[in-house]
Amino acid sequence: NGGATNTAANNAPLRGAKAQLYEGGVRVPAAAVWRDVIPAGTVVDEPLHMVDIYPTLMGLAGGSLEQPLPIDGRDAWPAIAKGAPSPHEHILLGAQGRQGAIRQGRWKLVRNGESPAKPPVIELFDLDADPNEQRNVATSQPEKVAELAALLDELVSGETHPTLGLTHAAAVVAGGRLVAERYGQRVVQALRPLEP
Hints:
By secondary structure, this protein is of the alpha+beta class. The protein has four helices and seven strands; from the N terminus they run H-H-H-E-E-E-E-H-E-E-E. The radius of gyration is 20 Å and the shape is globular.
């Protein structure tokens, strides 16, 4: 994701930095080279996601995507090589606790809420007209805000949280158990010994 501005990164003109939900924190350039297949100078302006890499490469290699758990990514090859639209109807850009962001076509909803005592700040951006996220149009687009907020809530409610790799949490290992505090809830999980 975007560079950490406290270490001299500059994400301008995009708003935000690493670990933030604004474009300066989530938009990342990518490059693909395949001589005689991807024309030189091709630019893809469609929103794609890093989770698309696996299904795209599996599709190119003729592999199967059948597995017991669902795959979040989509085959992005048509968008990369043939100028097709994004394979995503929407992209969940991040969600933790009361914060999250979702993109649907030109629209991006950002929900910033750090304290349960206060309502979260809701921002809506038209990225086609305002890629630098300077104009919050939430008050003039209440239907789009409601639609995207409901979609964000739906996606977050189905989210699974890995116990290890906790973010915004304090964790200690004691007596062979991981004891963590995540968003005010205590999580305890027995740890298996690592195989040699």
